[in-house]
Write a structure and sequence with these properties.
Number of strands: 0
Strand content: under 5%
Order of helices and strands: HHHHHHHHHHHHHHHHH
CATH class: Mainly Alpha
Shape: globular
CATH topology: Formate dehydrogenase/DMSO reductase fold
């Protein structure tokens, strides 16, 4: 059954701002609850230190200094980078079908980058260590520390994305100002400082170039560059080292980002009856991209396994054998493979397609990619190639404190969308204007 796109108007676009439903209140309560649970556990960490987690040094206990915190950091960064890559591709390549979800992808990038940065703050144990340790060393040590370059490029990407989003928001706010909440007028006035309609053409060109810069930076510096270099350039870590990490990280970023956009878009469509604004065609297209990126992810995983077990150096073969003997690894691979198979099956037989099923597949992909990244971090440390504490068996299981942080960041992302949706349109006005032109 097709949807008449001419039924889309500004009332539809502004429905999240102008209405308050029980669904919204329930979602708000769940988000605040998740954040509250995390804060309760985080207070324990502030009081007692990282000893309340299952993180430790290699030492006689055979533990690992990086675990879920760093795995989740990489996961959130991947979702962020993949999200803005997809949004930039919409603008750069003229993929108008996905215009209704472009801003949702940009907002997901901002939220996910914020959560990634939060995990760095959590992982140092106490927030004051960023001031007493990291900041004083920044001018002299940044060029030697992969982690500092990591923080640097993430900050640069955050600025690029925020600028990208701000430039497109000004157009919408200027034309919808009489329909926006009067109590937020000071905010809207600040957003429109110096604005005039003559800047629209200039802004359009600026946004195009920003999109171009984002597309170029992603494989060279971000989730195809600096982030995997943090691991791939360490030859003492057999499970990390190698040139395949860049493409592998990028494939995971794109796969998880598409999944995130599917979930967020479906949530808004369900909550605000946006069947006309975000039609089935958008989800079918996102599903096809999910299947394609999932296929690349699985192919790169196969590359790593084959090269790690066939006539590989002893250390790499050992790390690979441990990975493929870990049941959780196959759970992660199975979740991504199941989503890919569903997408391909629904392409061959369209009657199999449904948005709820695609959402379930997307949730599975997000769980799978998170598990893969945590295992990647932990096993790379447990099976390092050096003689320090040789023979000590490594063991790590995320603690309740660490799991609460993951739940808390999910709550933060949900809260971010709930708040932003009451302040600005989460779908660009350009998409509505296209529909209005069709109606005319």
């Amino acid at each position: 059954m097709s949807v008449d796109v001419t039924s889309v108007d500004r009332d539809t676009l502004l429905r999240p701002i102008e209405t308050l439903s029980r669904r919204y209140v329930a979602a708000l309560a769940v988000a605040l609850g998740l954040i509250g649970v995390w804060l309760a556990f985080y207070v324990q960490q502030l009081q007692h230190g990282l000893v309340v987690t299952n993180l430790s040094d290699w030492g006689s206990g055979g533990g690992v200094p990086w675990g879920l915190y760093i795995g989740a950091f990489i996961w959130w960064v991947g979702i962020a980078h993949g999200g803005i890559i997809l949004s930039a591709a919409v603008r750069l390549l003229g993929m108008d079908t996905y215009q209704p979800v472009a801003r949702l992808a940009e907002l997901l990038t901002i939220a996910a980058l914020s959560c990634a940065g939060l995990f760095i703050l959590i992982h140092v144990g106490r927030p004051d260590r960023l001031v007493t340790s990291v900041l004083p060393a920044w001018p002299t040590c940044v060029q030697w520390s992969p982690l500092m370059w990591d923080v640097t490029v993430i900050t640069a990407y955050f600025v690029l994305t925020a600028t990208y989003l701000l430039l497109t928001i000004r157009y919408d706010v200027s034309r919808l100002r009489d329909r926006l909440p009067p109590r937020l007028e000071p905010l809207y006035r600040a957003l429109l400082v110096g604005y005039s309609e003559t800047e629209d053409a200039v802004v359009e060109r600026m946004v195009w170039w920003l999109a171009f810069a984002i597309i170029i930076m992603a494989p060279l510096l971000l989730h195809g560059g600096v982030i995997p270099w943090l691991f791939a350039l360490l030859p003492s870590m057999a499970g990390w080292h190698g040139g395949v990490q860049g493409p592998s990280f990028l494939s995971i970023a794109l796969t998880s980002a598409v999944s995130g956009i599917v979930i967020v878009s479906a949530a808004f469509r369900y909550a605000y009856d946006w069947e006309a604004l975000i039609p089935d065609a958008v989800f079918r297209g996102l599903g096809q991209w999910l299947g394609f990126f999932g296929l690349i992810f699985l192919w790169l995983q196969l590359q790593q396994v084959i090269t790690g077990i066939f006539a590989a150096p002893t250390t790499l073969q050992h790390a690979t054998e441990v990975k493929i003997s870990t049941p959780l690894y196959w759970v992660a691979i199975g979740l991504v493979a199941a989503a890919m198979l569903y997408v391909f099956a629904s392409s061959l037989r369209p009657t199999l397609f449904s948005i709820p099923a695609l959402v379930v597949a997307s949730v599975g992909v997000l769980v799978g990619t998170l598990v893969e990244k945590v295992l990647f971090v932990v096993e790379g440390l447990q099976h390092a190639h050096f003689d320090l504490y040789n023979g000590v068996p490594g063991a790590y299981t995320p603690s309740a404190v660490e799991l609460s942080a993951l739940a808390g960041t999910v709550g933060i992302v949900a809260l971010f969308f709930l708040v932003v949706s009451k302040v600005i349109p989460v779908v660009e006005l350009h998409a509505i204007e296209d529909y209005e032109e069709v109606d005319t």
